[in-house]
Amino acid sequence: xxxxxxxxxxxxxxxxxxxxxxxxxxxxxxxxxxxxxxEEEHGGPGGxxxxxxxxIEELATVYESGFAMSLHSDIIVPYIHSFGSDEQKAKWLPLxxxxxxxxxxxxxxxxxxxxxxxxxxxxxxxxxxxxxxxxKTFISNGLLxxxxxxxxxxxxxxxxxxxxxxxxxxxxxxxxxKGKRLAKMGLAAQDTAELSFENCRIPASNLLxxxxxxxxxxxxxxxxxxxxxxxxxxxxxxxxxxxxxxxxKEREAFGRSISKFQNTRFKLADCATQVEVGRHxxxxxxxxxxxxxxxxxxxxxxxxxxxxxxxxxxxxxxxxFGGYGYMLEYPIARAYMDARVQRIYAGTNEIMx
Length: 353
Prior knowledge:
Low-confidence stretches: none
Shape: elongated
């Protein structure tokens, strides 16, 4: 009901503007759909990751790829929840759950991609402050964010895996600059931007977790990030297939429905099998993850397989739409463009292997 009321009527505007309205984020928070796993003592609804999975699935069901609720709820805020000080958690978690604070995470840099140990952004201690300098790119929620988790080197000449630290940087800090919104092939409604830090001073208390421990904190949380991508990919494939079956029954060629042709049936049977097998594997991983298991292998497998499966299914389904599949007014065209990045972000599929 929330998606039908607060998402669907605004999708075209969001895609045109290249950004989701702040009001939508706040309404999602008021409804309890941001950080649904967060305890009530921190201002959350008191659910678990299964509630997050439902949110991801419902957005995918309406082809919504720009409203990055899961990025905020299930990828970024967990860093604060797991590694933040009592003061950091008390300050930020209720605001993150309400939608009054939107988060981003600044990992990727122009020259590093998925190689987190090679980041060049630096954080130098100066008395009771840290001074940040560097540039980040491909940052989702980059323009909307009020708070950014920044990955930086605190010892540029040290062990690359023991010199990375995480920092909480408020968007209104002098020296924190938001660049232009990046034009992308897909995810049209998502505000992806470049960020830069030029002598950006933050309090020493904004260090998130231990100094030099950032790489290991990232490794702990990347599994859930990869699982959220797998969930979105699986749900997208299911919706694309469902709509394609309907279209094939309605579309006629050579005097009969194209669903009557053996080629169509074989293609749909193949897609349906992949989707069904994917759902059962994914649900098993979700159940074990929600139960608290640390699933490096399985989450990497799921991200790899679900995103590759989505690519295959959406390509086959678009073909069955014929020329209409190439028209942006049809959701299948947008789904095709949105699917491509799933194999790239959250760690490329080559890294998953």
